[in-house]
Amino acid sequence: MNHHELLFQRCFCRLGMRSFGRNEKNAAMKHKSPEWCYLYVHIINLIEACLMLTWKDVIRFAKEGNPTPDRTITRSEEEWKSLLTAEQYYITRQKGTERAFSSEMCSLFEPGIYACVCCDTLLFDASEKFESGTGWPSFTQPIRDNAIAYHGDFSYGMQRIETVCNVCQAHLGHVFPDGPAPSRLRYCMNAISLKKVEKTAAV
Ligand SMILES: [Zn+2]
Questions:
Q1: What is the pTM of this model?
Q2: Looking at 11, 165, 168, 188, which residue is catalytic?
């Protein structure tokens, strides 16, 4: 199998991943050979844009029901208390919010994957993380459509969309329609709800 065939194979294996194509695009650009490499990157960009979740999808999930998760985890409050720190329990199981700019995770942009602190479900790829200036770690896409569930949140006199881990229902934060192009989504997360795992997305 030559270099280009390998790239295509990896690309199609990752269909459905929100980080689809980024590594392959970099690899293709580094290769700097035939013109079709650039065509290939263009095609990936188009497919990627089609696969991205948008605000319309988020509203649909919140109103009509969330995507089915790969698995579900249910524990009693006592079990969660024994597994989590007091701070993690407050944020994830009691819908708390950490202080803005309280975590170094905001300025962390190293490659890797962010997982749910309660159940280790992979939630975000670092390549979708951006500096929002809000003081909370911000992402523009989840790693998979079904990683996160969405619920209308009308607390504190506001209308917001709450995001939770779709596997264990841990409160993560909220999502807003003012993120960067092309999806325009801003997943505003509590750093305490997340943990960085070094592995990269499975190919
Ligand atoms: Zn979880």
A1: 0.77
A2: 188
* From the candidate CATH numbers 2.40.50.1020, 1.20.1250.20, 2.170.150.20, 3.30.70.380, the one assigned to the domain spanning 55-202: 2.170.150.20
Q: Quick: pLDDT tens for 7-55.
A: 555 555 545 444 445 565 666 566 656 666 667 777 777 777 777 899 9
Residues in the 5 Å CB sphere of ion ligand 1: 116, 118-119, 121, 165, 167-168, 170
Q: DSSP letter at 162?
A: E
CA 113 to CA 42: how far, in whole Å?
25
In angstroms, what is the span from residue 171 Cα to ligand 1's centroid? 9
Q: How far is the CA of 119 from the centre of ligand 1 (A)?
A: 4
CA distance 72 to 147: 11
pLDDT at position 109, please? 86
Residue ranges per domain, the chain? 3-51, 55-202
Q: How far is the CA of 74 from the centre of ligand 1 (A)?
A: 10
- List, for the chain, all residue ranges whose pLDDT scores fall below the cut of 50: 14, 16-20, 201-203
d(CA 45, CA 91): 36
Q: Is 118 a catalytic residue?
A: no
Q: Checking DSSP bridges between strand 113-116 and strand 148-153, what pairing results, if any?
A: unpaired
Name the nearest CA neighbour of 174 among 105, 91, 73.
91
